[in-house]
Amino acid sequence: MRFEGVLTAWNHDAGQGRISPSGGGEAVFVSLGAFPTDGEGVRLDEALSFEIVTGRDGRKQAVNLKRLPAARLSPALREATGLGQARVRQAQRRRRLS
User: Fold this and answer.
1) Residue 5: its pLDDT value, please?
2) 48-to-4, 10, 34 alpha-carbon distances in Å
């Protein structure tokens, strides 16, 4: 079963992050290997379609990711995307103050 969500957190050093499902609920772990090999990099606030499996450690994780075109974004995904952008701006401000 496929789900849709937005990439809300990403650690470039570790190659992993979290996807917030559009239907709400707990954020899902995602690793770099789950992204399509289309030459595009990982982008925060990117709308994605994914499947969920249980990893070796018992945590849920996203696999078989597909990028969603901007035109297909549901209102819930658009709202979630806006929240992520605010978080990025806040982090950028903190870096400037340091």
Assistant:
1) 92
2) 6, 14, 11
CA distance 82 to 49: 18
61-88 pLDDT, tens digit per residue, is 999 999 988 655 566 555 555 545 556 6
* Contact yes or no for 62/18 (Cβ under 8 A): no
Look at residue 50 in the predicted model and tell me its pLDDT: 94
At 15, list the tokens.
């190659």
- The model carries a pTM of 0.69
Angle ∠(89,62,2) on CA atoms, nearest 5: 105
C-alpha pair distances (Å), 14 with each of 10, 59, 61, 66: 9, 17, 15, 21
How large is the C-alpha radius of gyration of the chain? 14
